[in-house]
């Protein structure tokens, strides 16, 4: 494996482009997943519509439940139009070439969106099944419900005496148990981690607050005041050992979130104020 994951991804993308150039186009009818349609631009100014099909049929009409990523080169204007037209759980038709990507997923490169409001009985049945709640009842954390839009399980838990949301992401595993083990490790030393997160936030962000984010006539914020104004809202754990602590900022940074990121092995690593 390459030491540079970005270089490896670029090589894989070039290999995929060579492979798919020889694949004939076909009409794909598919069910858009709960994430809906999105888009991205690149450094050259080109735009792409991006979405994932939760289930789909090729020209032969055979149903597949293997998820497939779809990419369509577009203008920025068309991108905005299509993002407004394509809803989560809708059925679309595209003209596309389909092939496995070297990174392990199925990819379609589309040349045209034929329809954004199609109908198909089998795909509609899949949509109904996917809209049924999927709940894992964990003995420690209670019921965790799958949020299909972000593909993680969420539930309400108690952390350091307060109610917060626990999000469990399991992108690299067959189930959520590995990610839940990350949560269990945090809860084993709950008081210690809570203090470490607060202190880390102060060490990384207090100077930024006092140098650049004070309101007019607002006095310098002390470490204790900084901690008191932060309110933990959610903890997200990942199956690779990473985690995020998400806080409301108590208007320290005018409504930005406070994100503290770490890893069970390497400890706390990063503080940010996204949003």
Automatic annotation (TrEMBL):
Residue stretches making up the DUF2262 domain: 138-273
Start and end residues of each DUF7021 domain: 14-130
One Pfam family, short name: DUF2262
InterPro entries: DUF2262 (IPR019260), DUF7021 (IPR054286)
Protein name: Uncharacterized protein
Top-level taxonomy: Bacteria, Pseudomonadati, Planctomycetota, Planctomycetia, Planctomycetales
Source organism, top-level taxon: Bacteria
